[in-house]
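Pair request: fold both.
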Amino acid sequence: MRNFFWYTIVGFVLLLFGTSCANQVAPTGGPKDVTPPKVLGSYPLNKSTNFKESKVRILFDEYVVLDNPAQQVVISPPMVPFPSFRVKGKELIIEFQDSLRSNTTYTINITAAVKDLTESNVLPDFQYVFSTGDYLDSFIVTGRVVEAEKGELIEGVLVLLYDVLEDSVVYKEKPYYFGRTNKDGSFRIENLKGGKYKVFAVKDENFNLKYDLPNEKIAFWPDPISVSEVPLPPLELRLFQEEVKSLQLIETFTSSRGFNQFIYSMPIKKVDIKPLLDTANFSGSLIEYNVSRDTISHWYLYNTNGRSILLVTANDTLTDSVSVKSPLFTNDSLYKIGKPGLLTASSKMKRSTAPDVLELDRPFEFELNRPAQKVDDSKVYVLEDTINAVVPTVYFADSVKRKVAIGFSWKPGSHYKIVFLDSAIIDSYGLKSDSIGFEVIARKPEDYGAVTITVDSLEPSQQYLLEARIGDAMPVVVEVITGTTKFSKKYEKLVPGAYKVRIVRDANFNKQWDTGSYNQSRQPERVYMHPTPIDLKPNWEIEVEIEMEK
């Protein structure tokens, strides 16, 4: 039997040598190769016991290359010194630099270190496992990773196990064991030895198997787990982005004269912007925050050419001097600058969205590309069914006067033409708009749907936030629930669509979802996501029942 095994291995080795004799020339022509390399076999065989070799040979179905094995390969338990890796044709050769521990199960995670020669297709997660003793360690840890804020299961997240139980280990060291989540967010890490481990999940942006970038997400199990003969229940790790600890100005944009955009590392409560010099020529500064308040849009009048220096102070603590360019000509289709410091051409205001359906009992709104001074409502009218011209109520719906709203008693199913005559709008530079027109149709009552949402098994002492939205839009249902075990409410006049329903367990009663902090050992607030979107059709009524987990 032993001779038969030896001859099999000899044949395999001859096959290796045979495949490495030809020149490595990439094929030309034909469709692009998108198939990653496949493992045909190895010597010694994968999952061997009583391992006594000094090297491992792994054969692939095509020519391969190595990509930074020192970073991409993780070996559990760690080997010091690190093995050498080299490629010979279709063969990967791993040579151990020192003797191996006795009675130890080793796992070599090759991850993205091997790619094919022609198109750099990456080898999917591959582990070579062997034991220097009579058996392989056989303990298993399973679970799933959930995106904490959205409640979604995530693919491709690393799950890291450390036998060093220091809190800082995830920043400094590679894991003792690791796995990766599947499409359903699940993970399974095998061939573990018994003992205690700290458990993390990391969205590893720089592929170094550590948590060391501010834009990386992390999840952590609160206490070390004990791996033994007693099976562990599946772990649920909730992945979150920690709050940025320091306020920084990340980026600045200047797309046209009199407009800048400032992007910060965290939300801004207030910002003050003024020129360093030549303050006499600086006037009319307008500031707009985005929804998350980390991006500032700034419009101003500044009659100067070339570059100027602005002092931008955020939250009364961080001041940056920003050099901005005032171009003589721009690519902005709304206006051109004819002479230095003068705005001579009229602007063409434009809306950011083009709704062809008008919501009943709501104003019609459109957005200008920059702030306005005023609207001459004598030059605005609504034409109903192309016959009757009526002067509507026109007003600005925001503080910087970019959102224009038209209030009117819309009739269900009627067609309207909304007309802004030439010069009806004067912008912040004193430029007058061209004529603007919109054609819309008002919904009918039967175009809407209704949803009754019932939430049971609530804890009266807790606070919950109920939200429903279409896609990633702003929620159309927002409800704060507290002091009850059961909640039920009917929501009417909802636009048809696929609604996502989310319930946040608002642990600190601040009426918003809060992220976690690893340094403070604080988990993110729990989120329940309804497993499937609510598909609401026109004139439908749907009942949704949700049972909250304790």
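--- second member of the pair ---
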Amino acid sequence: MAQQELSAFLLERAPELAQRTAEHLMLASVSTLVATIAGVVIAIICFEYQKLRNPITAAVGILQTVPSLAMLVFLMTVIGKIGVLPALAALTLYALLPIVRNTIIGLESIPAPTIEAAQGIGMTKAQQIYMVRVPMAMPAIVAGIRTAAVVGVGIATLSAFIGAGGLGEFINRGLALSNTRLILLGAIPAAILAVAADLILAIAEWGIRPVRATDKPLSTRQRKLRRTLAASLPAVVCAASLSFYVYEHPITAQPNVIRIGTKHFTESLILGELISQAIEAQTKLKVEKRFDLGGSLVCHGALLRGDVDIYPEYTGTSFATILNMDSIKDPKQALDTVSQEYKKRFSLTWLPTFGFNNAWAIIVNDKAAKVHGWSKISDLKPSAGKLRMGLTSEFAERSDGYPGLKTVYGLNFAHITDLDTNIAYRALAEDQLDATAGNSTDGRIDAYHLKILDDDKKFFPAYQAAPIIRDETLKDHPELEDVFKSLGGTINNATMRQLNYKVDAEHRSPADVAKEFLTAKHLDSAAK
């Protein structure tokens, strides 16, 4: 299927683009507002109490050095929720530095004669700060706010990794699906928002600065009205975006709404769509999609906290990442074990498996495999010292990933690079890598003409895919059991690879591919 025409693509995405833009604007504007209030207060404290200045400004500076994703995940863990709260907290912390520094500089730059005059008319120290220093420092303060706002718009794109929404949703999906259009659909509006934020604050700065002799002559009433409107523009934008967000995302949980989570890769997105569409087709329940949440730990944490009700997982991943247990090779025993452990430890239920086994695989370029005679993983050992290996960060650290593979097969690659699978597959096809680790049902294996090497020492355990659901959700909505029984066993390895191929190679949306599959299997309708 050919890619959509650009006009059709934009028309189809327009409603979601408007929603994501409003979410992004809310994240950036609210965090900048909170950071402005906090930053000015902190700067005044530093100005008044010089002994506190160095440690406080150092602490604020250190916050700026923490990688954005690490900060988001850390705050998500501390706050105990995914979504908007940890995102706002992270963005606020990142916005503090320019505001605090500029405010301190502004407070210190007031001419001494001005302060002497204030003292001469009997102003207290507090009055000097709030009535003289802060107003006169306003250009420096606003400059800091403008810097913080622009940076905040950029960092807000990462908030999508923890379910906070915004334009980062498109960028995440584009990266997961190797879809340049989706990446640009998030990146270009984000860039426009950054420019718009700077312009809005520039207008507000004009509204609050003193009238100059060179300004265009206007009546006092006109001047006051224009300046009031200009000065209040950021507050209006912030209030409007926040109101829209609250309207679209009610604070209280909505009845009969099931929240579906997924990880950040094609197959998980397709499974999430299958789950979502099957629930809405076969029951009276509505679905809220909280896709692209990152890795297993993020999704599992969201499930435990009730931020999502269901997400698709793999048995092998659960052993290594969640349960911290040795993997079990036998598929049935593995499924029985994870089901029992999840029920006992977390009050979570493993529903019927989809029917395929998406085990890890070592993948090479098909042409290179023919040249070097590679058919199984053991064949790499003689030349491993010269080979370039690309690994995802998760595979590089997990016990069922590279550490275990290295021990079992005795592999010591010359160069190992952390890469997203989307980049690794392309690099492999372009001969920039010699091998990578991927999933056996990945559609890009066929799209890029790659080859899976046989796991001749049977190192990789079974990775049966199945939805996991909160026991509380299943108790409240027992009709979901029938939905997942209908989905159970409907997808084998070949089918899953075809579904992935349609998204990765043909650039179709996971939603369309899932809908087509459900229709073909007659799972897209039921008596309601």
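Observation on the second member. The chain has a mean pLDDT of 89.
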